[in-house]
């Protein structure tokens, strides 16, 4: 295999079948044996560069779509939280039923009360002083 001067019977029969003489066959074998592989190397380098560019393009598209999806999900979450908070506030205090005048009517502070006097409102609605006036006079 190292020398082209060795005669091979199968190669001789092949050259006769192809119509190429032995000298041309030896030149072709020598050409392909010493061929410069730089064109192959450059083509593989170009192909790897194209593959890298395509990979980076797909990576950036994926990153952008994930960011959009996360911001969309975040906005939906914030909206639902705000709606739930609003519903919770409305459940605690209905807006239509609230008026400051009613709250002032509901306060049970008689005008004749003195400071330090303790007043109790019972379940039946009666309001009495916790300490009787007689104990203060004594």
Automatic annotation (TrEMBL):
<protein>
    <submittedName>
        <fullName>Organic solute transporter subunit beta</fullName>
    </submittedName>
</protein>
<dbReference type="GO" id="GO:0005886">
    <property type="term" value="C:plasma membrane"/>
</dbReference>
<feature type="transmembrane region" description="Helical">
    <location>
        <begin position="40"/>
        <end position="64"/>
    </location>
</feature>
<dbReference type="GO" id="GO:0015721">
    <property type="term" value="P:bile acid and bile salt transport"/>
</dbReference>
<keyword id="KW-1133">Transmembrane helix</keyword>
<dbReference type="InterPro" id="IPR029387">
    <property type="entry name" value="OSTbeta"/>
</dbReference>
<keyword id="KW-0472">Membrane</keyword>
<feature type="region of interest" description="Disordered">
    <location>
        <begin position="95"/>
        <end position="117"/>
    </location>
</feature>
<dbReference type="InterPro" id="IPR052678">
    <property type="entry name" value="OST-beta_subunit"/>
</dbReference>
<dbReference type="GO" id="GO:0046982">
    <property type="term" value="F:protein heterodimerization activity"/>
</dbReference>
<dbReference type="Pfam" id="PF15048">
    <property type="entry name" value="OSTbeta"/>
</dbReference>
<keyword id="KW-0812">Transmembrane</keyword>
<dbReference type="GO" id="GO:0022857">
    <property type="term" value="F:transmembrane transporter activity"/>
</dbReference>
<feature type="compositionally biased region" description="Polar residues">
    <location>
        <begin position="101"/>
        <end position="113"/>
    </location>
</feature>
């Amino acid at each position: 295999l190292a020398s082209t001067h060795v005669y091979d019977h199968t190669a001789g029969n092949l050259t006769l079948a192809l119509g190429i003489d032995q000298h041309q066959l030896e030149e072709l074998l020598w050409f392909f044996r010493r061929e410069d592989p730089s064109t192959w190397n450059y083509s593989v380098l170009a192909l790897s560069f194209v593959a890298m560019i395509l990979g980076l393009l797909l990576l950036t598209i994926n990153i952008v779509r994930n960011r959009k999806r996360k911001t969309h999900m975040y906005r939906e979450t914030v909206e639902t939280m705000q709606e739930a908070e609003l519903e919770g506030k409305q459940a605690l205090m209905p807006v239509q039923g609230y008026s400051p005048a009613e709250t002032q009517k509901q306060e049970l502070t008689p005008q004749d009360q003195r400071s330090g006097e303790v007043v109790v409102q019972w379940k039946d609605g009666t309001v009495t002083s916790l300490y009787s006036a007689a104990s203060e006079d004594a």
